[in-house]
Amino acid sequence: MREILFRGFHENKSGESVILVNGAEKRGTWVEGSLIKSESGHCYIGEWLVSSKAIQFYCGGSRKHRTETRYLGMGFALVIPETVGQFTGILACEEKKVFEGDRIKADEEGEISEYSIAYCGEDDYPAFDCIPHIDCDANGLSYLKGADYPIEVIGTIFDTPDKPKGATHD
């Protein structure tokens, strides 16, 4: 089963990362986990603790069994909605996860190219792809991975212009 995972930026004054969102600098921390979006548009990312236990009970004079499952949200952090990106399922160099919104560098047989990763569902193309698009017979991100070109995460689309080249998200 593939991993369904999200990443978003939790704004806090003690955070080590600084990003740009709609032209404004935000200090905080990147967090990964499950995504909850409220009706008001707030987004939270964190972990679920799942607890299951077998229960015996009597119904109509006979003993029955069932499993009771409880879900408890752990450590959910409020994140800036514009920064939420889904894990693409692809691992870059050093097993680093590639998320929607990441900037990557690919070594295509000695030619170094940089791309940002976007979900193209709004374009009737429900997949993660490289921007700018790669002229190939397949999805650009899948093409890079399938051709076994080295991919390196070099940052996010929210990085500040003064961020050192090669700096990456947490």
UniProtKB/TrEMBL annotation:
Cited InterPro entries: YopX_protein
Official protein name in the record: YopX protein domain-containing protein
SUPFAM superfamilies: YopX-like
Residue stretches making up the YopX protein domain: 71-162
Native organism taxonomy: unclassified sequences, metagenomes, ecological metagenomes
Pfam families cross-referenced by the UniProt entry: YopX (PF09643)
